[in-house]
């Protein structure tokens, strides 16, 4: 997300993103620059969406099992 002046209100950052956090929850925001162009950013989002679809479809393995497989050189 890029931040610009339209998203500031009385010196405060205003985000329009749904959340399940309770009212009054404090969060820390960090502005992180990257060097992705529009094509790379689109590819990143496609990959993240595909990974999310796989997780929701139950096509994942527990972290401990993944680490064991990586240590064995199986992946």
pLDDT averaged over residues: 85
Oligomer: single chain
Biggest sheet, open or closed, and with what strands and sense? 2 strands, antiparallel
End-to-end distance = 33 Å
| SSE order, one letter for each helix or strand | EEHH
Domain module count:
1
- Shape annotation: extended
The poorly predicted ranges are none
**Fraction of helical residues:** 25-40%
Strand order of the largest sheet: 1-2
Q: Please state the CA-atom Rg, rounded to the nearest Å.
A: 18 Å
Q: Could you tell me the number of beta strands?
A: 2
Measured by DSSP, the beta-strand proportion falls in 5-15%
Task: Count up the helices.
Answer: 2
What structural category characterises the helix and strand content? mainly alpha
Quick description:
By secondary structure, the protein is mainly alpha-helical. The protein has helices spanning 38-56, 63-72; strands at residues 8-9, 12-13. The chain is built from 2 helices and 2 strands.
């Amino acid at each position: 997300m890029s931040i610009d002046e339209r998203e500031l209100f009385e010196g405060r950052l205003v985000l329009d993103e749904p959340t399940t956090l309770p009212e009054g929850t404090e969060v820390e925001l960090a502005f992180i620059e990257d060097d992705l162009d529009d094509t790379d950013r689109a590819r990143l989002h496609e990959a993240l969406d595909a990974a999310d679809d796989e997780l929701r479809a139950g096509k994942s393995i527990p972290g401990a099992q993944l680490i064991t497989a990586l240590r064995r050189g199986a992946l």
